[in-house]
Structure formats: C-alpha cells, structure tokens
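Onboarding guide, step 5: your first structure request.
Type a short instruction followed by the sequence, for example:

Predict the 3D structure of this protein.
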Amino acid sequence: MKLKENVIVRELMGETVLIPLGTSADFNGMIIVNPTASEILKIMPDAETRDDIVKAMLEIYDADEETVKTDVDEFLGQLEENGLIE
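The system replies with structure tokens like these:
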C-alpha cells in the first residue's frame, strides 16, 4: 500500500505533513496529520494490505484491535477520498 509518487511526506516543526504535487491528486494544499496517522504513513511502504498496517499498529499502540482497525480504515479512507494512494 503506497502513497502516489507525487505525494511528499515531510516533518515540519514537529508535525508530519502531506503535500501532493501536480494535478493527479484530488486535493490541493497541505495536510497536517496526527501522530497515529504519522505512524500509519511510516508503515505503509512495507505493508501490502490494510491488515498488515493494523498488525503493525497493534505492536506500537496499547489499544484494542477494533479501535485500531477503525483508525486505520478512517485514515486510509481519507487518503483514498483525496486521491493520495495508489
């Protein structure tokens, strides 16, 4: 699971931001993400599926599986809705 090539992820002043470049994304601007979403972004390049992300997040956070699944699904849905993932 990957972000599109034209999406840059950067740490700026302690915040993780997504910046889509060009016109292939449905979003124009900058997105500042929370710490949970930042961890998901770090995991995504090595994850093949949503379940891979959930499993990795469960190793990081002391949370129940349903909560983690909901958080992962919500963030991935937002990325997809804005045309930021392949």
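Each response can be followed by summary notes, for example: The helical segments are 35-43, 50-60, 65-81.
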